[in-house]
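To whoever is on call:

I kicked off a structure prediction for a single chain this morning and the downstream step that reads the tokens threw a length-mismatch warning. I double-checked the sequence; it's 185 residues and nothing unusual in it as far as I can see. Pasting both halves so you can look.
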Amino acid sequence: MSETYVTVTGNVATQPVLRVGRTGTPFLTFRLAQNVNRLDRTTGVVETIATNWMTVCAFRAHAVNLYRSLAKGQPVIVHGRLRVQDWATDERSGTTVELEATAVGHDLARGQACFVKVAQPPLPQSTDTAADRRQLRELAASAAREAAPEVLPVFIPPEPGSEEQAEHSEQSVSAVGSEPGRAPV
């Protein structure tokens, strides 16, 4: 059976929730809202005509990293395996759209981000001991207790042609190559 992979942009619509499955594997879920916008040619205004909703899920270390990185309202780009399922009960029926994320990132067309590489111990497998699974549950609980990531200062470039802009350009040029592996600020 072939699988469908898609890339979707949208906003994190619910606060991401980190859980631990029965086998001890951490998993994360959140709802993603993707607005469908159209330009009204008569008024020149862009209007939202519909919203596509989907559930995004991730597993293991990816889930923990996403939990520590995402918050409700942030713009993201999600790439992953698409699953569409019809469902029905006695009273209602509908369709569920789920995206099992293989890659998630902030949409940098709409803001700034700061990447921090983390060194994590290997996650316990389902064959590990009860103590290992308990340690994983404690990891998920500590992640749940953490506060939202702190807000980083925003860099606002100086006006073109100003003294500040000339200073900034000189500093950037002099910083290039000054420290290996470091980009100019």
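Update from on-call: the warning came from a stale cache, not from the record. Cleared it. Sanity check on the structure: The beta strands are 4-12, 17-20, 26-40, 45-59, 75-88, 93-106.
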